[in-house]
């Protein structure tokens, strides 16, 4: 299993790959491919739990999914994404919630959707041995303030991202997710900080890339414009289920190989 230091050593040397997973079986498939980091994203809210956004995801739901992913993954670094309001309001509670992901569920690190309010918390968590990944740009937990549109398109907002990146690095963040910001801004952030930047909709100059699993494999009903579909798992699942229904309806399934008989049960009465 790589440590956050191994990941930092990769920055600028080889691209870091990160993908989300929300259960043990998916995590084991993703892990076997050699992905560097598995993020148990709160994107599970829309990706697999049927919500319209990530806000309803609870700490208990996240804990359960982090435990499953940690059991399914042997080699990748497992990062727990802290859900809306599970951090930031009260320091003690934030630390306990983040610590639970490592202590009880087997995560290796946490991710916080970041802003000025997470600088001190990042420092405290890092001091306590809880590696913390920052997340700037589009932070979906702020959807009610920002929507899902491109972020930092103007000077002031772009400079704020650079400043926040520096401040989170100084606070001890081990890596930085940059979401849906201009590629030239992401490139400047990557130049400015020594910690790895991991982009999503942030161009090709970041140290790594992250996408949501269901978008990548073609399981999502719709995907953001910056995602790429590399497979058609939705189609394959539908085909397999269609075949199963046809086989049951035609009487082809179950066949002899799926059934067993006991001679002494031929005549019960
Ligand atoms: O929740 C998530 O999956 C994320 C990634 C998209 C970065 O935060």
From TrEMBL:
Cofactor: how and how many bound: Binds 1 Mg(2+) ion per subunit.
Location of the protein in the cell: Cytoplasm
Catalytic activity: (6R)-5,10-methylene-5,6,7,8-tetrahydrofolate + 3-methyl-2-oxobutanoate + H2O = 2-dehydropantoate + (6S)-5,6,7,8-tetrahydrofolate
InterPro entries, per the entry: Pantoate_hydroxy_MeTrfase, Pyrv/PenolPyrv_kinase-like_dom, Pyrv_kinase-like_dom_sf
Signal peptide: none
Record-level Gene Ontology MF annotations: 3-methyl-2-oxobutanoate hydroxymethyltransferase activity; magnesium ion binding; methyltransferase activity
A family per Pfam: Pantoate_transf
Key word Iron present: no
Organism of provenance: Haloarcula japonica (strain ATCC 49778 / DSM 6131 / JCM 7785 / NBRC 101032 / NCIMB 13157 / TR-1)
GO cellular component assignments: cytoplasm
Entry binding sites for Mg(2+): 42, 81, 113
Recorded family membership: Belongs to the PanB family.
UniProt subunit comment: Homodecamer; pentamer of dimers.
Region described as Disordered: 249-269
Name of the protein: 3-methyl-2-oxobutanoate hydroxymethyltransferase
Function field: Catalyzes the reversible reaction in which hydroxymethyl group from 5,10-methylenetetrahydrofolate is transferred onto alpha-ketoisovalerate to form ketopantoate.
Obligatory cofactor(s): Mg(2+)
């Amino acid at each position: 299993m790589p440590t956050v230091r191994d990941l930092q050593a990769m920055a600028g040397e080889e691209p870091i790959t990160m993908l989300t997973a929300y259960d043990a079986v998916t995590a084991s498939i993703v892990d076997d491919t050699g992905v560097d980091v598995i993020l148990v994203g709160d994107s599970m809210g829309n990706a697999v739990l049927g919500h319209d956004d990530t806000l309803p995801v609870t700490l208990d739901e996240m804990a359960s999914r982090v435990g499953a992913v940690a059991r399914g993954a042997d080699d990748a670094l497992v990062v727990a994404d802290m859900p809306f309001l599970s951090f930031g309001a009260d320091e003690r509670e934030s630390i306990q919630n983040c610590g639970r992901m490592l202590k009880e569920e087997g995560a290796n690190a946490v991710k916080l959707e970041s802003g000025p309010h997470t600088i001190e918390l990042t420092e405290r968590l890092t001091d306590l041995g809880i590696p913390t990944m920052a997340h700037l740009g589009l932070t979906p937990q702020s959807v009610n303030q920002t929507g899902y549109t491109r972020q930092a398109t103007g000077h002031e907002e772009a400079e704020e991202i650079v400043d926040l990146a520096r401040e989170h690095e100084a606070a001890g963040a081990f890596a930085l997710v940059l979401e849906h910001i201009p590629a030239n801004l992401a490139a400047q952030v990557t130049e400015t900080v020594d910690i790895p930047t991991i982009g999503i909709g942030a161009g090709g100059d970041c140290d790594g890339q992250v996408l949501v699993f269901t978008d990548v494999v073609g399981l999502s009903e719709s995907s953001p414009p910056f995602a790429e579909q590399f497979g058609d798992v939705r189609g394959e699942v539908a085909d397999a289920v269609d075949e199963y229904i046809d086989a049951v309806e035609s009487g082809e399934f179950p066949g002899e190989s799926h059934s067993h008989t006991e001679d002494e049960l031929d005549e019960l009465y």
